[in-house]
Structure prediction request, 211 residues.
Amino acid sequence: MEVVTLSRDEYLESVQKLSHFENLKFLKNALDLWDNYYSWEKFPPLALKVNNRHVTYLFYNISKNNKYLTINNILTPFKYRRNGYAYKLLKYLFSSVKPNKIERCKLYSVNNSIKFYNKLGLRYWGVTKELLYYSDFKMPEDIKEIEEINYESSTDEFNDLELQDIHNKLKDNANSFDEKEILIHEDCLKLMKTRFKFDDLSDEIKKRDLK
Prediction:
């Protein structure tokens, strides 16, 4: 078992045999994102390699000022799931970026990943118009610290500009969802329970008299 980086060509070669619709949708979204907004050379995606096969893919980037590690996409194809591969790859990522002294981590979770991120201990500040659940928390020294960090997190961690930026991403709060998306969102809320913190975010926006 090892972690490797992938060039664009290596990535395309690696995923060409995957056929499940959700896998293909993820793979295309990740490809488009990196082609249009990020650098394959500066932030090559990671892959966990087991028995000479790539079993999990992870796309991430680090902000210019080293404030944020952003986990953009992580996928374990269906046939390799339930082996803890995503956890192992995330653990490697957090360990490998330590020298950067990054302040915070943020990620956007698709609905199918909520159970996984719940187990890690994440809290979610809200949902975007694209049905992605947003997390933003202090950078852990180790993946095992995520639960405690998120449990202790609060809106006090953000200055006015940061808080406003987060709220702008999430303020629609499912109001523009169609019927199918509403059903998906309601199922996610049942899974997240008190982990969904949009009300806290909105209350802080009102408290600071921000718009």
